[in-house]
Write a structure and sequence with these properties.
With about 325 residues, the chain is of the alpha/beta class. The chain has a six-stranded mixed β-sheet with strand order 3-2-1-4-5-6, with helices on both faces. Strands 7, 8, 9, 10, 13 and 14 form a six-stranded mixed β-sheet that branches. A two-stranded antiparallel ribbon has the order 11-12. A hairpin with a 4-residue loop joins strand 7 and strand 8. It starts with a strand and ends with a helix.
Length: about 325
């Protein structure tokens, strides 16, 4: 059996190439050193694993002084659990020995895009996770994106907003308090996150709130409302319920507008010349992407990976993809 692993800063994901096994574990690497333990549990789930394919973004966690040290940490932990390990680099090729750590920084989106090239040659791939969003154009089977996170932030193919962990205080400067018909500035504290916004609005359920909460308390709708009230320095009793719901809706629309602006920026580049007709969407924030695409002017074929592969695979798509790519590479004697 081949196993694909996507080791991120907040979540460690695993999948088999056939999709029969898929698992995501919330594991914030910046403060939690249990990666080896989690990998052993995954191995217990899949005792027949013979080869492992790995992509990573967790090297960027800020407990590592440099990202290359994060790559070494992840490699050490993976190889302490699994014997035969292959790592996918940003060029889309596998290596067993990592000699240049920079080639492996944030390579998970590469696996996803190469996998989707089996379906189309011209498309846009949008993957919103808990923390970030990838917007990757592919033309004639060529990935039209830079490779480092810094370069992708500059060219707009990486937007640092997500469906769960994004700090609400970074999204807007002020919100309207309906009951007072006035605007209030937002306190620049990590009182609430986008998971609270979508929990209040019913876009996610409590079981989907998989990350830790800003205050370490519960994940009920009431808990989320209490946290969101704090962004205007209130207890929940200080506001009307309609105020809290309206704040959530305002923040939701800010994120949707930011995402739709980013998508339009990519789609409107002259060099594509109308070549992109298909858009693939994936990730735990797929519902946000759908809302953003309604604000995109032209008509496109929207292909949901949750509908093509199932919800579980969509949420761990880089892990599924890298495992599939290793299986294909071994079958074709490419490595």
């Amino acid at each position: 059996m081949i196993l694909g692993l996507d080791i991120g800063g907040a979540n460690t994901k695993a999948s088999s190439p056939d999709g029969c096994y898929a698992r995501s574990v919330y594991l914030p690497l910046w403060k939690d050193s249990r990666l080896e333990d989690i990998l052993f549990k995954i191995k217990e789930d899949c005792p027949d694993v013979e080869k492992v394919a790995v992509v990573m973004t967790g090297e960027g966690a800020d407990n590592f002084l440099e990202k290359r040290l994060g790559v070494r940490y992840i490699k050490q932990n993976v190889e302490s659990v699994f014997d035969d390990v292959y790592y996918l680099n940003v060029d889309g090729t596998f290596e067993k020995d990592i000699t240049d750590e920079k080639k492996f920084f944030s390579a998970n989106w590469i696996a996803s895009v190469i996998k989707l090239m089996e379906l189309e040659e011209d498309f846009l791939f949008i993957d919103m996770g808990s923390t970030t969003t990838d917007i990757i154009p592919v033309i004639d089977g060529r990935i039209c994106s830079r490779k480092t996170d810094f370069e992708r932030l500059l060219d707009g193919t990486l937007i640092y907003i997500g469906a769960l962990r994004t700090d609400v205080s970074t999204m807007a400067e002020k919100v309207k308090i309906l009951s007072r018909d006035r605007y209030s500035p937002i306190a620049k504290e990590r009182y609430a996150q986008m998971a609270d916004v979508y929990n209040i609005l019913g876009s996610i359920k409590e079981k989907d709130y998989i990350c830790e909460t800003p205050d370490g308390k519960g994940r009920s709708i009431e808990d989320s409302k209490r946290r969101l009230a704090r962004i205007v320095c209130c207890d929940l009793e200080d506001l009307e319920d309609c105020d809290v719901v309206h704040i959530a809706d305002e923040i939701k629309m800010v994120e949707i507008n930011m995402l739709s602006d980013g998508i339009n920026k990519i789609l409107n580049k002259k060099e594509w010349d109308g070549r992109i007709e298909n858009i693939f969407i994936a990730g735990s924030g797929e519902f946000v992407v759908r809302a953003a695409l309604k604000r995109v002017k032209d008509l496109y074929n929207i292909n949901s990976l949750s509908e093509i592969f199932g919800d579980e695979i969509s949420s761990v798509f880089p892990a599924f993809s890298v495992g599939s790519l290793l299986e294909r590479s071994l079958k074709d004697n490419l490595i």
